[in-house]
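Lab notebook page, bench 4
Experiment: in silico fold of construct C2
Operator: M.H.
Input chain length: 154 residues
Purpose: comparison with the prior construct
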Amino acid sequence: MEAPVFKAMLHFIYRDTLPCLSDLIGSTSPVASTLMAQHLLVAADRYGLDRLRLLSEAKLCDEISIDTVATTLALAEQHQCFQLKSVCLKFIACPGRLKAVMQSEGFDYLNESCSSVLSELLESFARVEKNSGMVRQRYEDGSDSNGRRVRQRT
């Protein structure tokens, strides 16, 4: 465990609050803050600090980005963080993001360490595509893709 992670964990144990992570790491970079929260989640899980684990998971849910979502998803899978995993899958499944995530460095790590989660990712993406496709496909005669008559709401 790196010193800043240990310091953050001790801060939590003695004060029952999550310290300002950017102060501990000496950087205001969102990616560095996310990396610190990831390490803190692992430490909290290892030492059974459930509240710290929940706080770290919530922080990671708030800080998801194209650059960090793949490694965060792998971490969520490895540590059974179901809410975090769900948020990551929804984030990636938004139209236009999958390609960018696949080009990130973290995607290779996700593919190597948790290849089983890729099928869930594809299912989530397919669900979003199906739902958005049903909404967009309306024909000139007023029917949808299933041939049903659709009235436009006013």
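Observations: The chain has two domains: 1-63, 66-154. DSSP finds nine helices and no strands in the chain.
Next step: discuss at group meeting.
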